[in-house]
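Example protein was shown:

_____
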Amino acid sequence: LLLLANQIKGDNKLKSIGSNQWKEQLGCVEWLNSKEPHFVLYVNFGSITIMTPKQLIEFACGLANSEKPFLWIIRPDLVVGDLAILPLKFVTKTKDRAMLATWCAQEQILKIGGFVTHNG
């Protein structure tokens, strides 16, 4: 709805209907602006999807092996019953091409080449 509301001229009331369950982390859009257009993977499993620690590590390995820059949204409660802790090897391997955030202004994320989500 928010993206549609941006297309309606002269009515700012519609822009106030958007909501976020999580606080947006600053710096995501600026980081994206420093990257080549349409070349960044955006990964966000939404506000309710959860995974096991093993699934988190498996997914992290996939992102690391992709050798593509990525913005990965990792909510504090993404891992069921545990903290979302990524291996040091992953952090070291991806530090120059990764942005990890707890949440971001999704409607402003326009400079992506791929979008991975929960689709549900």
In short: The longest strand covers residues 112-117. Residues 53-66 form the longest helix (14 residues). Residues 20-117 form a domain with the Rossmann fold fold (CATH 3.40.50.2000). The chain has one domain: 20-117.
